[in-house]
Amino acid sequence: MxxxxxxxxxxxxxxxxxxxxxxxxxxxxxxxxxxIFGATKMVPVTSQYNHLVTSFGLKxxxxxxxxMNQLIETGATSKQRFSADPRPLDPNVPSxxxxxxxxxxxxxxKQDFYEGQLHKLGLMEKDAFTCAxxxxxxxxxxxxxxxxxxxxxxAVVYANSVLGARCNRNSGIIDLMGSVVGYVPxxxxxxxxxxxxxxxxxxxxxxxxxxxxxxxxxxxxxMEDVPYIVGLDRWxxxxxxxxxxxxxxxxxxTASNGAVGLYHVEGITPEAVRQGRGLxxxxxxxxxxxxxxxxxxxxxxxxxxxxxxxxxKLCFMGCPHMSLNQLVTWTERIEQxxxxxxxxxxxxxxxxxxxxxxxxxxxxxxxxxxxxxxGVITSYICPLMYMNNPLCASMPVITSSNKxxxxxxxxxYTDDEILEQITKGGER
Length: 428
Prior knowledge:
By secondary structure, the chain is of the alpha/beta class. It has helices at residues 9-15, 21-36, 62-73, 97-107, 111-121, 153-163, 174-181, 211-222, 233-236, 241-257, 270-275, 291-300, 324-341, 356-363, 366-373, 383-387, 390-393, 402-407, 415-424, and strands spanning 42-44, 49-52, 81-84, 183-185, 197-203, 227-230, 264-265, 280-289, 314-322, 350-354, 377-379, 397-399, 411-412. It folds into 3 domains: 40-190, Aconitase, domain 3 (2-Layer Sandwich); 194-300, no CATH class; 314-424, Aconitase, domain 3, CATH 3.30.499.10. It is 43% helix and 14% strand. α18 links the parallel β12 (397-399) and β13.
């Protein structure tokens, strides 16, 4: 192929077919992909593990399965073991007979087959399915400065921002190809210049802003640009477990309500701690977020339910997947709210989703039995994949996830509003 990218001898040899036709086509795909974005070279993927966004065995993904088979049959498997996004199905999550038929016969009928392909290609372990692969319990936490080949938007923005790793917002399959060939094109968020901020976001709220709401506001304002956020350290303090959980949800909202792949938080995230406002480009624009601006954003969300005042039939929490401290904190909050109401169980079917490894550890604590006693279900699935079923999409579902709100018919409420709805229901 004709190309303008400067390749090393090894990279050029792969492109010329030294490792077989399949590897040559993988390299060609990455070169063409990189050149679209102005990349002039390829750089090695340096992380120990990869993460794939495509985890669901949709019947319509036949070309993906064919590609996977070709990679497996020619030995062009991943140079890294990898985790993958959450599974789409869990029998513990409420669904009726007709919904299950749609799930199993018309949507995810190839799930078992596809998971078999993933194992052959290098899946980390049987249950390495989560969008929050970077959590300690999962074991796919890249180090600062490592080059990744990921594509799950909420994972990419977390790795770039909170961990200081380097990764572009790739598409599905491109993530796998980078891992197979061991190189990714050098552009965008892999470069020092690409990691500088186009915006200064001043947080001037009178209380700690809702993570998902603040992330939504910033994402919709800056879109794919890099924001440098000041004033949030007042509410987060230091980069401890609570702050990491907050930034997990905040980042997912910036990535789904906009297209943010990296943000800096002054005094908190690693690059901002070291470089400060040296990360801000000359002429950066300013966006002020105060209480009124957050309320404006909240009020702008459309309600796409057939009946706006319908009683919710299901609540999903955990998009992205919940952390262990969220599961513990929410157990305590639900218990307290129910006790104040003189109740034992939630009044709306409620599902908390988390990584299998997190759920396993949670299950070893006394909180697991306490949460189960409130009627809340824990699951490893992707709520978005559940809501892709048109019969589920027609249900009035509530959530505090701005990602789930953006991509489905689920209705967004703040954490406090969710707590009130699932414990108090329609009472006033």
